[in-house]
Amino acid sequence: MGVILIGIGGGIIIVPALVLMFGFSQQMAQGTTLATLIPPVGLLAAYAYYREGAIDVRAALWIAAGFVVGGFFGAKLAVMLSTSVLTKVFAIILVVIAVRMWFTTE
């Protein structure tokens, strides 16, 4: 429940869980997570934030355009990489984000 409240889950919880607990390849875990999160999380959560005035629609549209391009080419690259390399890259990114969050104060 706490994980949901702070807005994490897709990349940080679900992908590793699919790999470690269910034997998915890194590519299969990432693709499955993206396919399952878009409708329920993306649309419903965004609508809730929109109703509260907590979305900059212009910025969201620009970011979404970047996601279309980045998602397409990123997915093509991800499926071309070996599972071992992709898993290591994913882990490094998670560690870098964690360290940065740990030492960032607001």
Describe the overall structure.
- The chain has 106 residues and is mainly alpha-helical.
- The chain has one domain.
- Helix content is 83%, strand content 0%.
- Helix 2 (10-22) runs antiparallel to helix 3 (26-51).
- The longest helix is centred in the middle third of the chain and has 26 residues, at 26-51.
- The radius of gyration is 15 Å and the shape is globular.
- The two termini are 24 Å apart.
Short description:
This protein has 106 residues and is mostly helical. The protein has helices spanning 2-5, 10-22, 26-51, 57-80, 83-103.
Strand-helix topology:
Elements: H1 2-5, H2 10-22, H3 26-51, H4 57-80, H5 83-103
**Count of beta strands:** 0
Class from helix and strand fractions: mainly alpha
Helix run count:
5
Termini separation comes to 24 Å
Give the proportion of residues in helices: over 70%
Assembly state here?
Answer: single chain
Low-confidence stretches: 1-6
Shape: globular
Characteristics of this structure?
106 residues, mainly alpha, 5 helices, 83% helix
